[in-house]
Amino acid sequence: MQSLSSIRKKENGLGWLFAAPAILGFVIFVLGPMIASLWFSLTDYKVASQAHFIGLDNYVHLFDGTDQFFYKSLGVTFYYVFLSVPLQIIVAFFLAILLNQKVKGLAFFRTVFYLPTIVPLIASSMIWMWLFDPDLGLLNVVLRALHLPESQWIYSEGSVVPTLVLMSLWTVGGTMIIFLAGLQDIPRHYYEAIEIDGGNALHKLMYITIPLTSPTIFFNTIMGFIGGFQVFVQPYVMTQGGPNNSSLFYTFYLFREAFTFSNMGYACAIAWVLFIVVLVFTAFLFKTARKWVYYEGGGA
Amino acid sequence: MKKHGWSGSRVLLYTVLIVGSLFCMFPFYWLVRSSMMDLSQIFLIPPKWIPEPFVLENFFQPFEELSFGRYFVNTFIVVAGTLAGVLLSSTISAYSFARMRWKGRDKVFALLLSSMMLPFAVTLIPSFIGWQALGMVNSYVPLVLPSFFGGGVFNIFLLRQFYMTLPRELDEAVFVDGGNHFTIFTRIILPLSRSAILVIGLFTFLNTWNDFMGPLVYLNDESKFTLAIGLQQFQGIYSAQWGVLMAASLIVVLPAIILFAIGQKYFMEGIALTGIKG
């Protein structure tokens, strides 16, 4: 058909035109800033004065140990990420499996578990601060009443990160819903086949559920890591990085350098280190994914 | 197959679900309860479960002593602008990626998708420097304008997934009738994807409502603050007045909850729609 093929030909230009907002947005708000950020990271730009090219000095300064906050914040962030992400994945997966059974009030439970994820982080930070208050907060009041040892929660160096991990479990519902969507795609007859072969619940989990949801596990793990590395609001609002920098999360440290101390060039270098850490992590996950992520279409 | 009686595993199942629900709902309850207590009640030990009497005073303070009314208006301006931008640009761009054939399309789309993994910190500082150079800091432009450029990769991804489920024959029929892509987009695709667009609207509303980092970086004048930033300032002033702080938090939370209650069905559909299978 003449007309159809001419329409298809026109699509080349028209396609770009329709996609133009997204492509322009990528160039202006992603690619451009990335290049600018890389450039600034090689300068001593401090807003008040002109930027001077200083080569890799910012990076050298970060790694040579003179900036103890860099290593501190990396440590805090890694601690948080490696504690919270596996916990979140396991809890969310486990809850999703429970909700994938024939449960009465399924819609109710789903809603209840999902609800905390829509609360603005600033508001949930306030609510949890009140619950964590060492003197009058409910958690310690209950512990006291039960004659259990109290905790200083976010107010002591040792407990602040685990406390924030506990708080992060409150919003596990978003991850859970994605798992649930993945679980509901598994054909029932796979489980029936295992039952016929005399398999038990553990067999179902190991041979059906986990392999068939492995792409979802993979997705949630990657998203969990990327989100975890960028935690900002909770330390900013709840602890200001304290006590004694024990909750100096990486993005909070970066924010402070950029917007409190106006060390823009230096902050860009900090951002690039984060980018590379995230990149190495996702690359590592993608590489191992070939071994454990199962795609029904074959090939990862 | 077994018939379900109240076997041990069933009891365990419901126990875990109920304990989990309590963990999820309890902070909400404590928020509401504390917001209606005055200082003499809130610090009682053992704690009271129900306010007695109910005090509504806490809810007036944010409006009287800080301009929460103004923050509401400001937040709505930002939300409305962002919604307009997202809905206009993501629907069009997703159409191109889902239903038009052009050279490099899939590569461009993959590039866009990969930017989802980019930490926001990498673009934050140069973007700020750029907006500052343009004299736009302390205005809503940096918060709203980017949404007109594609409206976010995730939204495009979600819409594209949905558009691809609509039958191709519809397009061919329009072409035969002498229509073009614009006709297909406005007359067929948009009306048919109303629910997907609603999902995006809901998520956009919530994300903008909840955004803290953007307003924190770009807004300096108190008169321009959004609710999220206003609430944070409130915390600085009333650091130990938990009743007032909880009332103010509830004011910020409530619109999100109401919206969720109204659009619940679409939220759940939206998550299923993304069909994340790798």
Explain the overall architecture:
- The complex is a heterodimer of chains A (300) and B (278).
- Chain A is mainly alpha-helical.
- Chain A has a single domain, classed as MetI-like fold, CATH 1.10.3720.
- Chain A is built from 13 helices and no strands.
- Chain B has 14 helices and no strands.
- Chain B starts with 7 loop residues before the first helix and ends with a helix.
- The chains are: A mainly alpha (300), B mainly alpha (278).
- At the A-B interface, helix 1, helix 3, helix 4, helix 5 and helix 6 of A face helix 1, helix 4, helix 5, helix 6 and helix 11 of B.
Helix amount of chain A = over 70%
Low-confidence stretches of chain B: none
Oligomer: heterodimer
The geometry of chain A reads as: globular
The mean pLDDT of chain B is: 90
Strand content of chain A: under 5%
Helix-strand sequence of chain B: HHHHHHHHHHHHHH
Subcellular location (chain A): Cell membrane
Organism (chain A): Paenibacillus peoriae
Protein name (chain A): Sugar ABC transporter permease
GO biological process, one term (chain A): transmembrane transport
Which terms summarize this structure?
heterodimer; A: mainly alpha; MetI-like fold; 13 helices; 71% helix; 0% strand; globular; B: 278 residues; mainly alpha; transmembrane helix (chain A); MetI-like_sf (chain A)
Concise summary:
The complex is a heterodimer of chains A (300) and B (278). Chain A has 300 residues and is mostly helical. Chain A is built from 13 helices and no strands.
Q: Which SSEs are present, and which pair or pack?
A:
The complex is a heterodimer of chains A (300) and B (278).
Chain A: H1 2-40, H2 57-63, H3 68-99, H4 106-114, H5 121-132, H6 138-145, H7 160-168, H8 173-183, H9 188-196, H10 201-229, H11 233-239, H12 250-260, H13 264-292
Helix pairs in contact in A: 1-13, 3-7, 3-8, 3-10, 4-8, 5-11, 8-10, 10-13, 12-13
Chain B: H1 8-35, H2 39-42, H3 57-65, H4 68-99, H5 105-114, H6 120-133, H7 141-144, H8 153-163, H9 169-176, H10 181-192, H11 194-210, H12 213-218, H13 227-237, H14 242-274
Helix pairs in contact in B: 1-14, 3-14, 4-8, 4-11, 9-10, 11-14, 13-14
